[in-house]
Amino acid sequence: MIQHPIEPVYDKNSKILILGSFPSVKSREAGFFYGHPQNRFWKVLAAICECEVPVTIEEKKVFLLENHIAVWDVIRSCDIEGSSDSSIKNVIPNDLGLILEEADIKQIYVNGKKAEQLYQKYIFPKIMRKAICLPSTSPANAAWSLKKLTEEWRKIM
Length: 157
Fold this sequence. Notes:
Blueprint: E1 2-3, E2 16-20, H1 25-30, H2 41-49, H3 57-66, E3 69-73, E4 75-79, E5 89-93, H4 97-102, E6 107-111, H5 113-127, E7 131-134, H6 146-153
Helix pairs in contact: 2-6
């Protein structure tokens, strides 16, 4: 059983919440969300917000908070082989109550189909709030170009 090692990023001004499934091996090693160098999450968000791509963890946290974006994952702990979402078993979900009580979240988004599937199964029945599924920024989602991802993710703003 692997525990989620990264704290959620949000504050009382956060308006949107973006949820992934569970941090990849690279993200767990880096100690922050979307830490795999090929993941396009930071490039997509920077393009939408018309900002420089944040590099350090501190820059990423500031970027998210300045743009009223909260980030976390659906899963608190699970069994997983490497970074393979398809291998996820024995899920214990995160409690989104913390964020939803403190922040004025207007919309919840999920990053990819696996996050959507897990959200629908574990989170939706508890909080009864719809999440909009966006195409995954993972390097495994090679069918989506950076340009196409950015166009689709623009709806968060």
